[in-house]
Amino acid sequence: xxxxxxxxxxxxxxxxxxxxxxxxxxxxxxxxxxxxxxxxxxxxxxxxxxxxxxxxxxxxxxxxxxxxxxxxxxxxxxxxxxxxxxxxxxxxxxxxxxxxxxxxxxxxxxxxxxxxxxxxxxxxxxxxxxxxxxxxxxxxxxxxxxxxxxxxxxxxxxxxxxxxxxxxxxxxxxxxxxxxxxxxxxxxxxxxxxxxxxxxxxxxxxxxxxxxxxxxxxxxxxxxxxxxxxxxxxxxxxxxxxxxxxxxxxxxxxxxxxxxxxxxxxxxxxxxxxxxxxxxxxxxxxxxxxxxxxxxxxxxxxxxxxxxxxxxxxxxxxxxxxxxxxxxxxxxxxxxxxxxxxxxxxxxxxxxxx
Length: 354
Description:
Number of strands: 20
CATH architecture of the largest domain: 3-Layer(aba) Sandwich
Helix content: 10-25%
Strand content: 25-35%
Radius of gyration: 21 Å
Number of helices: 6
Distance between the termini: 38 Å
Shape: globular
Structural class: alpha+beta
């Protein structure tokens, strides 16, 4: 495989770094976990060579999108605390639950992403903690009486910007989009501190599981020479999320437990978000609950074909199989008091801009 013309792969070990130095590194595409600082411009994703694209939000004139405002409103009843980092038992318990979402390269502990002294090495890190005050968490001197810790993110502070380091959340609260919520709280904090930019990681120049990061307002993308309008780099639009419904009693069948999910039939019937409830009510009327597989179509290698149903509605059909790695979320929906299935069509809005 030929080396791309602007190939960069660098790393260095820094025990101490000042805020103004962080700003300079972020501008050049550097990131860090603990004392390990690194940057690389190309990577393999699904066996395809693609460019790594660092991203940042220009905070001048920034306003939350409608979907982001909905996420904030959905979580306003939780207690959100921004403070210098102080890890407790709650954080380690939350991390161990959060890492269950990893299917490969599973991190051993939270110190894969933070130094052993994150309050000062290599720089003072801050945290955003989100608590469910209606549920009791483990007792610690710091978070005693705050409730159960359900989400947390860590970020660094420079003179001109802040940069997100890592975020985690309790999967029991999947519908609250807490990963996006803590990012929005980081943005609000950056604006309050009159910072110019918010660095929120990277994506690729091809569709990927990181594409939700592309859909923040006012974002800029780095092509390893300059920061610019992301439309000049991202030429491939993110496809809509699609959904496959499964009877709860069928989930243990062999064809759902393989790494390649291939239920019987000519094709695998899926729905777009707006038709999930309709499909559940039509095909699962004798069930009280149904499992919904949230699928990232860019990770499905089989043919996905939009086809019209007799009533004129459009449905995506997969002619082949669903790789397990394409399922980024699973939810269970149940009938309401009127015996009707409902589905929150905005549950994956974090993947899109308005």
